[in-house]
Amino acid sequence: MVTTQKIIVLRFSAMGDVAMVASVLREFSEQNPSAEIIMVSRSAFKAFFNGIPKLIFHPIQPKTIHKGIDGLYKLYQELRSYKPTAIADLHDNLRSRAISTFFRLTGTKIKRIDKGRAEKKALTRTHNKVFKPLRKTVERYADVFRELGFGVKLSHQINKSPQAIPVKAEALFANKTTKKIGISPFAQHVYKVYALEKMEAVIASLSGFGHELFIFGGGKTEQAVAENWAKTYKNTHNLIGNFNLTGELAIISNLDVMLSMDSSGMHMASLVGVPVVSIWGPTHPYAGFLGYGQLESDCIQIDHPARPNSIYGNKPCLCGVENCIDLIKPETIVDKIKEKLNG
């Protein structure tokens, strides 16, 4: 009799990183159908894991009931009820280490991600930079499961899987002859954001070609920007504040291409099999965070000896008077999107 393996997977944030975990777990589940997964992350990200067989989503609430060491012990007690056979720590932060420590004391097998911090420091330092591609983050995630004894072979292919369009968005897809382009122009860190006036020039051009444009991602400030663009340019639609994550994923799954920063929009598109044209500034695909199954040839970036100088985009560009991301011309972006649309 084969004993069922129950793996608790820890990855609490950030949004794009959690989406990458979902891409890995989809293939892991296909290749290990007897394994059961308890995915622990923020409740906002639950939609990423919909449809994965034998996966239970368990939310962490770090600002309320799971706050502090007492809260983490409460979370441990909740997770212990699943009777896991192993813990896959894909986060390696203080919270995930605390949970792992509680389980280790009971003899549960623990494996933790190797983030490659020394390699990433060498890639981003100013002097003696070691400029070479590092191991992809998704492979670092998969390595944890391999160390737990599972076979995992990632395809690194996007799998187009259109979902039912939300009723509220059906009218936006009524014209079947137009190309549908998603635009995710914002990011958590300002240094990863393409200048909004230049992005507006991109939107103006794409709108002029008759394409349908859908703007994603952000809060109230970004919503106001997107709504202004939607009023100014034909066939341009603001989705910020109008759909939940499940709805956004369903809409993205019906797009022809996504234009995104190095941000969660790229990873959401990867999750539903949509090709991405991505724009990069102080970060670089070499650090391992390119969207799952996306092509480096679809990354738009400026060659400069100071790039990259940041892994997460939380540091300003060091390329000179003008930020490297703003040296990218709107026409370059439009031409790349036309190339993708034309196959």
Q: Can you offer a commentary on this structure?
A:
There is one protein chain. The protein has ten helices and eleven strands. It is of the alpha/beta class. Strand 9 (257-261), helix 9 and strand 10 form a beta-alpha-beta unit. The mean pLDDT is 97.
* Biggest sheet record: 6 strands, parallel
**What overall geometry do the principal axes of the alpha carbons give?**
globular
Helix-and-strand structural type:
alpha/beta
Give the radius of gyration: 21 Å
Mean pLDDT: 97
Number of helices: 10
In the sheet with the most strands, the strands line up as 8-7-6-9-10-11
Distance between the termini: 50 Å
Unreliable residue stretches = none
> What share of the residues does DSSP label as strand, in percent?
5-15%
Range of helix content = 25-40%
What layout of secondary structure does this protein have?
Layout: E1 6-10, H1 15-31, E2 36-42, E3 55-60, H2 68-80, E4 86-89, H3 94-104, E5 109-112, H4 117-124, H5 137-147, E6 180-184, H6 196-208, E7 212-215, H7 220-232, E8 236-238, H8 245-252, E9 257-261, H9 264-271, E10 276-279, E11 299-300, H10 330-341
Parallel strand pairs: 1-2, 1-4, 2-3, 4-5, 6-7, 6-9, 7-8, 9-10, 10-11
Question: What's a concise summary of this model?
Answer:
With 343 residues, this protein is an alpha/beta fold. The protein has helices spanning 15-31, 68-80, 94-104, 117-124, 137-147, 196-208, 220-232, 245-252, 264-271, 330-341; strands spanning 6-10, 36-42, 55-60, 86-89, 109-112, 180-184, 212-215, 236-238, 257-261, 276-279, 299-300. Helix 1 (15-31) packs across helix 5 and helix 1 (15-31) runs parallel beside helix 9 (264-271).
